[in-house]
Amino acid sequence: MIREVARTYPHGELMNTWAWIQSAINTDGAHNPVTSRRVRSGDILSVNTFPMIAGYYTALERTLFLNHASDAHLALWEINCQIHRRGMELIRPGARCCDIATELNEMYREHGLLEYRSFGYGHSFGSLCHYYGREAELELREDIQTVLEPGMVVSMEPMIMIPEGMPGAGGYREHDILVVTEDGAEDITGFPFGPEHNIIKT
Fold first, then answer.
1. Distance separating alpha carbons of residues 156 and 3, to the nearest angstrom
2. How do residues 113-123 score in pLDDT, each as one tens digit?
């Protein structure tokens, strides 16, 4: 990815452009450090890509498995994908960030998984660098009352982290970027998610 960004934008900076894959229990954090662990058949994988183009950043994150997934892993993955789909449906003009988070929390609670949810459900996108962060008032969290408006760009990225030693251990996360429109939202990510697409065969 970095080579392609450099080829397409030969005069751009590459400092904040990166991609990595985490495996097994190391998927239990959103951006855990990369290790030298060799992946194994049946591993849960987390793909993270962050191209930065002229100061504007995007992101793509997906849960994958190598060759196969256990029944426990599949069940948890399907639940997280269900919540991801519902979250994308909730992104529309007039919706409050806190209301989106509250509804998705309830879905996790119904499955007994709320305690394994990590951070907020999404955030703003635009310009970003090491010297300043993203807009706190456009985080999809329970304490943010910002109302979504057409033209806003936000992510939907629910994540659960199942501790080591439990059935289905690991981190599950899907991540799409959406542009709020006049009557809904457009998903501009264009990369499939879920078990039907992301069990990688070797």
1. 27
2. 999 998 889 99
Dihedral (Cα; 96, 100, 102, 105), 10-degree rounding? -160
Q: Which amino acid is at 10?
A: P
CB 159 within 8 A of CB 173: yes
pLDDT over 60 at 35, yes or no: yes
Which of these is catalytic: 31, 111, 123, 175?
Answer: 31
- pLDDT value, residue 129: 57
Rounded Cα distance, 199 and 174, in Å: 14
Neighbours of 26 (CB within 10 A): 19
Describe the chain by its helix, strand, coil percentages, rounded to 5: 25, 25, 50
Q: Could you tell me which of 56, 54, 55, 58 has the C-alpha nearest to residue 19?
A: 58
Helices (H), 21-112: 71-90, 97-110
Any idea what the Cα angle at residue 104 is, between residues 97 and 96, rounded to 5°?
A: 15
Tell me if 155 sits within 8 A of 125, measured CB to CB. yes
Angstrom distance (rounded) from CA 49 to CA 178: 16
- Residue 31 among the catalytic residues: yes
C-alpha–C-alpha distance, residues 92 and 186, integer Å: 9
Would you give the DSSP letter of residue 10? T
